[in-house]
Design goal:
The chain contains 21 helices and 6 strands. By secondary structure, it is mainly α. It folds into 3 domains: 125 residues, MgtE N-terminal domain-like (MgtE N-terminal fold); 100 residues, CBS-domain, CATH 3.10.580.10; 180 residues, Tetracycline Repressor, domain 2 (Orthogonal Bundle). A 3-stranded mixed beta sheet has the order 1-2-3. The protein has a 3-stranded mixed beta sheet with strand order 4-5-6. The longest helix has 31 residues. It is elongated.
Length: 446
């Protein structure tokens, strides 16, 4: 019997002693995964059997929809206790995934102060630094003495998301410095924190994109990054665990967009009807159909050449597929580089030229190979030349388009992943076919 089956059997028999002995072996993250695999009734019973601290940790790891189900199906007083102990940014993330009626139900469980904090957080876009930050941080006036900070820190640590950094602010609440916990402990007791704080503070504006926040945390190895407004007033912090979540979400989103799928499908595969999911993908499929219809028109315009040398049609799939593969590879490299900040976007021409060089090398290597195969198979030297030249051109163009389209889209302020998959492939099919048949008509005198 598997562990899941043992848990289900203990739940069915209401043998909570056995259930707790099984759950003691698991980390809260593992318990959250188990809850996701159980039925709704089983998940409620298992969750209710947990100690409060364990239940709180498990709740933070569950997806928003199951979290809402649990909070609205356990005892009302227990739900209020749970959600009031949750980090405010986690509650904000939960509310951001819910419908208006569901939001109001969750907000009713909260105290007035936490409701105010949440309303402030929800004013920011979910994918911004403000939308990702927590207001549960530790900050002191810069004049505060090290001894007093340490004494108060013990009380504040219970409600803070992290205490590894203590932020120093002026009388207007503006961020002026940061002190590590190590420096605070080692500092002379009577010394104001402004005397040993670091004034070169890395920070982000609340309106900055969450990807930029994640890049900075990764670049500098921070455990948290302060978030400020336009006047440098400290608003909150984004912690490293939230940054990791951002990286995972953005990577998944880019992969889905590159394939022409909607980014929302990463979270609701089992909760949205096939019709709704199909409707999300339909625009990209229609774009591909339009491209293929135009490609068909190109083939029709050169039907005389095809009738003269039927063998020209044999190599269409090879040319189209190879171009699509190289174009998608180049687009993926560009999107990945832009997402991680490793790509220098100052010069579009430089980046496109670099990928064009790769395309030329791939094109020459594959062009000579396919030309040799064509000559061996068909016994026509000129036909081999046509196919080889078309391959060189297609792969070069594919690499250039795969780099150019994401970069231009990014420069225009849009997500480069959106315009990189189906669009690159459709353009390549049209232009590649035109070049192939034009080259054949020219060289073969058709």
């Amino acid at each position: 019997m598997s562990q899941i089956e043992q848990i289900q059997a203990a739940l069915e028999e209401k043998n909570y002693d056995q259930l707790n002995s099984i759950l003691e072996q698991y980390h809260p993250v593992d318990i959250a995964q188990i809850i996701e695999e159980l039925s709704e009734d089983e998940s409620i019973n298992l969750f209710s059997a947990l100690e409060f601290d364990a239940a709180l940790q498990v709740l933070e790891e569950i997806d928003s929809h199951r979290k809402y189900f649990i909070l609205t199906n356990v005892e009302h007083s227990y739900a209020r206790k749970l959600i009031r102990e949750m980090p405010v940014d986690d509650v904000a993330d939960l509310l951001g995934d819910l419908e208006d009626q569901e939001k109001r139900r969750i907000l009713s469980l909260l105290g007035e102060n936490k409701q105010t904090d949440l309303i402030d957080l929800l004013a920011y876009a979910k994918n911004s630094a403000g939308g990702r930050m927590t207001t549960e941080y530790v900050a002191f006036p810069k004049e505060e003495r090290a001894k007093d900070v340490l004494n108060k820190l013990a009380e504040m640590a219970i409600d803070a998301e992290t205490i590894y950094y203590v932020y120093a602010v002026d009388s207007q609440g503006r961020l002026v410095g940061v002190v590590s916990l190590r420096d605070l402990i080692l500092a002379p007791e009577e010394t104001p924190i402004e005397d040993f704080m670091q004034t070169d503070v890395k920070k982000v504006n609340a309106l900055q994109d969450q990807e930029e926040v994640a890049r900075l945390i990764k670049k500098y190895g921070f455990l948290a990054l302060p978030v400020v407004d336009d006047d440098d007033v400290l608003l909150g912090i984004v912690t490293v665990d939230d940054a990791m979540t951002v990286v995972e979400e953005e990577t998944t989103e880019d992969i889905l967009k590159l394939s022409g799928s909607n980014a929302d499908e990463r979270i609701d595969v089992g909760e949205v009807s096939p019709w709704a999911r199909a409707k999300r993908r339909l625009p990209w499929i229609l774009l591909a159909i339009a491209g293929e219809i135009i490609s068909g028109r190109v083939i029709d315009d050169f039907s005389a050449a095809l009738q003269t040398i039927v063998a020209l049609s044999f190599f269409i799939p090879v040319l189209m597929d190879m171009g699509g593969n190289v174009g998608t590879q180049s687009a993926a490299i560009m999107v990945r580089g832009l997402a991680t900040g490793e790509m220098n976007t100052s010069s579009i021409a430089k980046n496109v030229l670099r990928e064009a060089t790769v395309g030329i090398i791939l094109g020459i290597a594959n062009g000579f190979l396919v030309a040799a195969i064509t000559y061996t198979w068909q016994g026509e030297m000129l036909l081999g030349v046509v196919v080889g030249l078309a391959m060189i051109f297609n792969l070069t163009l594919a690499a250039m388009l795969g780099a150019f389209i994401p970069l231009v889209w990014y420069k225009l302020g849009h997500d480069p992943a959106v315009a990189s998959g189906p669009l690159v492939t459709s353009i390549l099919d049209i232009v590649g076919l035109f070049v192939y048949f034009s080259t054949a008509t020219w060289i073969l005198k058709l």
